Amino acid sequence: RKEVEQDPGPFNVPEGATVAFNCTYSNSASQSFFWYRQDCRKEPKLLMSVYSSGNEDGRFTAQLNRASQYISLLIRDSKLSDSATYLCVVQTSYDKVIFGPGTSLSVIP
Amino acid sequence: DAGVIQSPRHEVTEMGQEVTLRCKPISGHNSLFWYRQTMMRGLELLIYFNNNVPIDDSGMPEDRFSAKMPNASFSTLKIQPSEPRDSAVYFCASSSLGGGRKAFFGQGTRLTVV
Questions:
Q1: Which residue from A19, A23, B2, B100 could staple onto A88, CB 3.0 to 4.6 Å apart?
Q2: How many C-alpha atoms does A36 have within 13 Å on its Cβ side?
Q3: In which element (H, E) is residue B57 found?
Q4: Contact between B100 and A32 using a beta-carbon 8 Å cutoff
Q5: What is the rounded distance in angstroms from the CA atom of residue B32 to the CA atom of residue B52?
Q6: Does B31 touch chain A if contact means CB atoms closer than 8 Å?
Q7: Per-residue pLDDT reduced to its tens digit, A87-106
């Protein structure tokens, strides 16, 4: 089993839609969690950290369920500029930072 | 403020040649990561350093790959000899413990081995 797994995608949604991405991780000792965004042929960039209490940044909401080892990202009112690959990232014990395979999102006019 | 700097941006080499990729992390960051990205395997962690010391190199695919970090501002990833299956984008990232392990990436080196 991979350390970090995500919905395979791709997700194709119309502008204005709400879309949710899911992620699971295998190491229960994992300490920190993030969502990154990667545009085509670019480097991954930090989108937001994920906190146990859940956190929101504008149209983006991240949730963490440690008991289920599950992370989610919700994007509301999606924009064309949200089209990218979204990567779930987990910092495991010993400071190892592991990326999930990513889920591709295309927002359609 | 300069981000993570990688060089070269693109490298085309012949099978069997030695390839050296370079990375300058963000000043003050004490962790450095090397990743490889391909369509088939996604973003794979090859090796990471804390305070210039290699902590986990279990992701290094084989002995042809080696990485060094002689000081806090420089790291290299070397492939010798290179093979066509090494073709990928290689990313370097750095982070600091105080930053909650948020990793910042360089623009990557696109390696093509022919």
A1: A23
A2: 26
A3: none
A4: yes
A5: 8
A6: yes
A7: 999 987 667 888 999 999 99
- Chain B residues whose CB is inside 8 A of the A32 CB are 100-101
Residue B52, Cβ density class (10 Å: 0-12 exposed, 13-18 middle, ≥19 buried): middle
Question: Which CA distances in Å does B55 have to A95, B33, B68?
Answer: 9, 10, 12
Q: Rounded to a whole number, what is the distance in Å from the CA of B108 to chain A's nearest CA? A: 7
Residue of chain B whose Cα is closest to the Cα of A47? B102
Q: Is B104 on the interface with A (CB under 8 A)?
A: yes
Distance of CA A109 to the CA centre of its chain: 23
Helix (H/G/I), strand (E/B), else coil: B84: helix
Segment A62-86 mean pLDDT: 96
Among the partner residues A43, A97, A102, nearest to B108 by beta-carbon distance: A43
pLDDT tens digits, one per residue of B2-50: 899 999 999 999 999 999 999 999 999 989 999 999 988 889 999 999 9
- Option in B31, B42, B43 nearest A95 (CB): B31
Whether residue B49 lies within 8 A of chain A, CB to CB, comes out as no
Residue A99 touches chain B, beta carbons under 8 Å: yes
* Contact assessment for residue A108 and residue A15, using Cβ atoms and an 8 Å cutoff: yes
In single-letter form, the type of residue at position A56 comes to E
Alpha-carbon distances, residue B24 vs B3, B36, B69, B84 (angstroms): 9, 17, 10, 26
